[in-house]
Specification:
Layout: H1 2-8, H2 10-13, H3 18-29, H4 54-66, H5 75-80, E1 82-85, E2 88-92, H6 96-114, H7 117-137, H8 146-149, H9 155-162, H10 170-180, E3 184-189, E4 202-210, E5 224-226, E6 229-234, H11 238-244, E7 252-261
Protein name: Deoxynucleoside triphosphate triphosphohydrolase SAMHD1-like
Organism: Octopus sinensis (East Asian common octopus)
GO molecular function: dGTPase activity
Length: about 260
């Protein structure tokens, strides 16, 4: 996608050297093996060490705002309290509760929006419709052709629905109509060990909620520093965090939702 943007805007590419373009790509990926540049730079956009970066702050703040959920963490305070120690970005120890609020905001967004049971159902039905239509429309080929991909919008849904005489799109069209008509209703969760599979006409969707580090406490991986000591970092251990914060009993929750056809 970045290469396509440069192709569409050659005047921008002309201002950059090849090694600068490679550096931009490495920053997006979040790693570089032989750049010779300070490693903390690769923690700014896509931090693979402990999952705190400006990309996460951006979508958490934006989505919380537009969904009307609100956020309880202050990313500007986090930035002001950050220091580079030992070639990695570290944070003042007193911001630990702010980071917990951030990871909780992530969990809440997944539970109320990204992996809401209705969203999961619609995602599955959309996927089924696209896979069926792909045999005739070549939808997934667009992923490898950036110019065509930029034109891949919601109009594909209209194209499937309006071609009522195209028998090749009948299955995809019926699936999309199931979404429009809300042909499925939620009937409850599936308890682990008691799942009999998807009964005819029923759909099971699985949600995986966590705080960004699976079943682990994400706070243990964050490097902190103490006031007056900006030359040495440390990590809180689980027991220390348990004493300092009101933490959940588990950091991961798997739920399976069952829907039946009306």
């Amino acid at each position: 996608m970045l290469d396509h943007l440069f192709e569409e805007n050659p005047h921008v590419r002309e201002e950059l050297e090849p090694d600068e373009i490679a550096f931009i790509k490495d920053l997006i990926i979040g790693e570089s093996e032989n750049s010779g540049k300070p490693q903390f730079l690769y923690q700014i956009i896509n931090n693979k060490s402990y999952n705190i970066d400006v990309d996460k702050w951006d979508y958490l703040a934006r989505d919380s705002h537009f969904l009307g959920i609100g956020k309880s963490f202050d990313h500007e305070r986090m930035i002001k309290m950050s220091r580079v120690i030992g070639n990695e970005i570290c944070y003042r120890d007193k911001t630990v509760d702010n980071f917990f609020d951030m990871f909780y905001s992530r969990y809440r967004l997944h539970k109320t929006a990204y992996q809401h049971k209705t969203v999961l159902l619609f995602n599955k039905l959309l996927g089924d419709a696209f896979r069926s239509a792909d045999r005739h429309l070549g939808i997934f080929e667009n992923v490898n052709h950036m110019r065509r991909f930029t034109y891949f919008t919601d109009s594909i849904l209209e194209e499937i629905l309006k071609n009522e005489d195209n028998e090749n799109l009948r299955e995809a069209r019926n699936t999309l109509n199931d979404i429009i008509k809300r042909s499925y209703r939620y009937i409850g969760t599936v308890e682990d060990g008691n799942d009999q599979g998807e009964e005819p006409g029923n759909i099971v969707c699985e949600a995986n909620f966590d705080y960004g580090a699976g079943n682990e406490n994400p706070l243990v991986n964050i490097p902190f520093y103490e006031r007056g000591n900006t030359h040495e970092s440390f990590n809180y251990n689980p027991d220390q965090l348990e004493e300092m914060l009101f933490l959940p009993g588990t950091f991961q929750l798997n739920v399976r939702y069952r829907f039946e056809r009306i």
